[in-house]
Amino acid sequence: MKKEEVFRLLEQHLLKDDRPAVFIDKLDREGILKRVEPFNLLVQLKKVEQDEKHHPEGNVWNHTLLVVDEAAKRRSLSREPRAFMWGALLHDLGKLRTTAVRKGRITAYDHDKIGGIMAEEFLSHFELEEKLVLRIVSLVKWHMQVLFVVKGLPFAAVEDMLQEIEAEEVALLALCDRLGRGGLTEEIKEKEEKDVKKFLQVCRGVERERMT
User: Fold this and answer.
1) What is the arithmetic mean of pLDDT over 115-138?
2) Is the confidence at residue 212, as pLDDT, over 80?
3) Does this entry carry the keyword Transmembrane helix (predicted)?
4) What does the alpha-carbon distance between residue 151 and residue 29 come to, in Å, rounded to a whole number?
5) Is 100 helix (H, G, I), strand (E, B) or coil?
6) How many CB atoms neighbour CB 61 within 10 A?
């Protein structure tokens, strides 16, 4: 199967299935992802472990499939569902290059920034409109901003983010990212939704300041 065909089939399921992860897993079990570049990058996510405290579902592949299914539940809320779903699939590619064990902990510092670069590399294998590529790359690049803003971390860069992508789109992907994990309780889910709302409030404040 050629890469263009895999892309087309995958996109079709990303945009139509209630659970796109079922089809993605099927492509993996048939060995198609492993054999076809750049989709082999996705399979490599199986080897990337995560901090069990924050990701009891296990490796980045498991997490990605959960996030894609969460995104499918909400794609109708996105301004650009096509970009949104590809952003969900590619959002943690950067962990391939950034994951390391530091002081006994598994970390993936800057995986959002590196992920943006890797997403662009991934998409360069296909003839896609520049606007779509830039939107997907921006979603990947900025998907950690909710966490950074809510925790008051120095990596927060709302003004820069807003020059590339709408806060609502980042918030939507970030919510899927946070809910695409194992062992979530209703209390944790409510907290994640509150954090997203807090992030959007901060972004709206920044937008108001830019208009004055």
Assistant:
1) 98
2) no
3) no
4) 39
5) strand
6) 20
* pLDDT, position 144: 98
With b for 16 or more beta-carbon neighbours within 10 A and e for fewer, the 104-138 pattern comes to: eebebeebbbbbbebbbebbeeeeeeeeebebbbb
Q: What is the CATH number of the domain that holds 155?
A: 1.10.3210
> What is the span of the domain harbouring residue 70?
3-211
CB 193 within 8 A of CB 175: yes
Please state the φ and ψ torsions of residue 113, each to the nearest 5 degrees. Answer: -65, -50
Average per-residue pLDDT for the chain: 97
CA–chain centroid gap for 53, Å, is 19
Q: Residue 29 has which token pair?
A: 């079990």
Digit-coded pLDDT (tens) for 140-197: 999 999 999 999 999 999 999 999 999 999 999 999 999 999 999 999 999 999 999 9
